[in-house]
Amino acid sequence: MEHLEIVNSMETAGIPSGFLEEYGVNACETAVFAILGCGIERIVKKLPEKGRKYFIQDPDIAKFLRKIQKKEELLIHRLCSLFLQAGNEKISALDWKMVEEVLFDEEIPANIQYPFLCYFKALKLSENQIQQVYQSLEQYPNQTKILLGELCEEERALLLEPLFTDNFLASIWEDRNGWKALIKPGVFSVVQRIHEIASAQQELTKNQLFQIAEKPEEIHVLLSKVLVYFQEEQYPQFCERWLENNALWADLRQMDRILPRITEKQEILDSRIGYVCALYHAHFEKLSVRELNWKQEELILYALVYGKKHFLKLVDAQHEDFEYLPYHNMLLDKDVYTHYLNINTINEKNLRNCRFLSKFTPKQKEYLNRPSYTFEELEFLLPLDPAYIYFYDRLELKRSDDRLRVTRELTSQDYKFSLLHEEKIQKLAKRISQKPVSLWQQQEMGHISELKLVCVLELLADWELYERFIPEIGNESQARYLIRNQKIIQKYETFTDFQKHMLQEDSAWLWLKKTLPFSETFIQANEERIRSFISSGSAEIVYQFCQNTENKWESVRRLLAAELMGEFHKLKYYTSDLEQEIAYPLAKETEKMWQENLVRTSKAGKLWEEDRFIQVLQIGEIPAHTCLSYQSGTYKECLLSCFDSNKKVLYLEWGGKIVFRALLRLTKGSWKKHPMPASHVEFADLTKEKPNQENIPEELVLFLERPYFKGLNKKMEKTVMQLVENLVQEKARKIQARLVISMSYYGYQAFEHYKCREYYVYISASKNGSQYLDSLGGETKISEEGTYGKNEFLIMEETILK
User: Fold this and answer.
1) What angle do CA 534, 537, 542 make, to 5 degrees?
2) Are the C-beta atoms of residues 21 and 7 closer than 8 Å to each other?
3) Is 731 helix (H, G, I), strand (E, B) or coil?
4) Mind giving me the DSSP string for 216-280?
């Protein structure tokens, strides 16, 4: 009953019942008692809910409203606005007469009633000051988040000044120290004078204000003296140059000395660099400072201000190299010349090289944390991945030459530092600071055959984990297997112990064994080859391919079984598979020559035909990621077609890395279109004449698919293409086949004697069901097998016989 009475009385007073939960019974009862006791419930009910909340905060306001409720029609909107502005403060504590005057003075904007009432109503202000304070208070929330109550009386008096609503001090108001600086003796008068001579777009920065606050009297006197030397219309230009140089007192002092001797004062004002050159008595004989872009100008200004005389002399002498620096250039990056590089150390060669240098990225700059760098260091680090820079900065070598030497050893290999956690990079830097990676490889790991630098780095990154196993490691395959099983090996004391449990520990092999599956009898019969297969990392590659390719598992099982039995070659070229795939009769000698893998070496590297299981399975990752990637390729399901009898891969290795690959296909072709085979069986139409069956000649074709490169420049590509052309020509002669080349080779000098011709190439059958043929539109389905695809190809001119 008591609760119901409270709710009823709240409804009578105009206080929403929902306030009970938000503010509690006592606060609501107090507000209701005040409202009903003063008889102002009619006014309260006209207020929006947010206005009624104020009675909970300040119930005594009801007494004031009782006195003025006869004027309520003017009251409601302004009253609600006043309540919201007051917030948690009590209006009832203010002078009632002043509150009434503000509330009913419609010239005072409704949204500034409370601050005006609190801080300015009692002041004796002129009409101009009153209008100015109205503008200032309306603009105040947009200028700063500092509360008016936090300012002292002198600071609040700044709202009476027209400067408060001007953009000239826009950046000052947000800073509490800016307010304090403005009320220091003499400061505001200097600010006002600068505002008088500045253009309408000019703004004063916090730094400039603080400079004025340090020497207000000196700046005031010197500014008056300097302005005498300029025409009044030149004041805004002078003010712009003076402020942008950001050395207010020092510039005025220097100007006071030099201006009497300068006749053409406008030249000082035309550009900032002209202004600074005058200040520092700088003169360039060859460098045309008027034609510099703003970034070049900024660098020259920096050099002038900080006394980089050697650099200034250099750019004057080598003015063309400096003038031709591109806009996005390392040397023109302000971070470089202010934080990383002492530009006085740059020589002629460095300046010439600058023309070909881009900028550091923000990520790279995060890791440039040494106190300073030489030009050679920055030039070396610029094209590198940020992770290399992180490594470089953590080297404990004092001499820059030593740091460069040990890091160059790493960048000579395609090692992805970005894949390492920062903690590992730190450990690697510490170890390589002890001695170069080449010495680690020679001394601690010299007994490991075929060990590449990339593997050495991976071992060094976690040397404390691998060190005890290293003496037993004999080749790189074992080393890589050790790395892949980092977590497992820790429970074993020696590598021999680990190898004994390999078949029970390797997760990829365990999955393959269970899923494909393989019997214990099979495993026992082929245990040595299985161990070798696992330790080389091949099990992991097959496992990766099997993910999301369930429809290929049976094919994988057959291929893998043949590999583990040591009979993959037999499976690859099984009995009459080749003839069936290309639907073309082959002599035994031709089949034999096709199966033989050619290998050729030259200065360009080693080029060979590849048909082994794991090596071919990786064509979508070597030398670069493509749509046939065994991990995540878009056409991953087409990958097993590469194990058809009529397909091989050409690989080229240069500098220890595979840099080229292309698919080589044995098929057949024709100059004329062949009829499509019937797609279904139907009754014959005896009313029609039987068409003449034209005997269209077919010929054996060796087809070279498009190339994939990585890490080769144009000159090297040219050399590689010649080696490729020589090998495929030799192969075609050996098997007596026409050589047909993908149009991707058009433009290479090695193929300039080939002509572009339309030709029909047979789409061979594939054991995989689908295959990916770049030169015939990509993915090919079973329904397209046994047909001819027409396209333009490169064919040697002397062999074109139609």
Assistant:
1) 85
2) no
3) helix
4) HHHHHHHHHHHHTTS-GGGHHHHHHHHHHHT-HHHHHHHHHHHGGG-S-THHHHH-HHHHHHHHT
What is the pTM for the complete model shown? 0.59
Residue 3 predicted with pLDDT over 80: no
pLDDT above 60: residue 781: no
The single residue listed with the structure tokens 């082929």 is 526
Residues 624-654 have pLDDT tens digits of: 889 999 988 899 999 999 999 999 999 999 8
Q: Which residues pair with 600 in a beta bridge?
A: 607
Only one residue has tokens 């290999």, namely 413
Do 412 and 449 meet the contact criterion of CB atoms below 8 Å apart?
Answer: no
Question: What is the C-alpha to C-alpha distance for residues 111 and 165, in angstroms, rounded to an integer?
Answer: 17
Within 13 A of 351's CA, how many CA atoms are on the CB side?
21
3-state secondary structure 522-540: HHHHCHHHHHHHHHCCHHH
Sign of the torsion angle spanned by Cα atoms 658, 660, 666, 667? positive
Q: Give CA 195 to chain center in angstroms.
A: 43
Cβ-contact 590, 596 below 8 angstroms:
no
| Under 8 Å between Cβ of 604 and 652 | yes
Query: Beta strands 738-741 and 699-704: pairing type?
Result: parallel
Whole-number Cα distances in Å, 274 to 292, 308, 331: 12, 17, 22
Using the structure block, give the residue that is written with the tokens 């030398």: 623
Residue 249 CB neighbour total at 10 angstroms? 16
Element housing 33 (H / E): helix 25-38
Query: How many CB atoms are closer than 10 A to CB 518?
Result: 18
Per-residue tokens: 496: 């021999």
Q: Supply 214's token pair.
A: 């340090």
**Whether the Cβ atoms of residue 758 and residue 790 lie closer than 8 Å to each other:** yes
Angstrom distances, CA of residue 79 to CA of 90, 114, 311, 642, 774: 14, 10, 69, 84, 78
Angle at 360 between CA 359 and CA 364, to 5 degrees: 170
* Half-sphere exposure at residue 5, Cβ-oriented, CA atoms within 13 angstroms: 4
CA 15 – CA 762 distance, rounded (Å): 89
For the four alpha carbons of 213, 215, 220 and 225, in that order, the dihedral sign comes to negative
Q: Which residues, in sequence order, are bridge partners of residue 200?
A: none
Give the distance between the most distant pair of CA atoms in the chain: 120
- φ, ψ (nearest 5 deg) of residue 142: -85, -20
pLDDT of residue 71: 61
Count how many residues are written for the chain: 802
User: Rounded distance, CA 275 to CA 226, Å?
Assistant: 14
Q: Which helix (H) or strand (E) holds 135?
A: helix 127-143
Q: What's the pLDDT tens digit per position in 203-213?
A: 999 999 999 99
Pairwise CA distance, residues 285 & 278, whole Å = 15
> What sections of 736-788 are H helices per DSSP?
none
Hey, what are 771's tokens? Answer: 């295959």
Q: Amino acid letter at 116?
A: F
Cβ–Cβ under 8 Å, residues 5 and 20: no
663: helix, strand or coil: strand
Asked whether 571 and 559 are in contact (CB, 8 A), the reply is yes
Cα angle 707, 708, 713; round to 5: 100
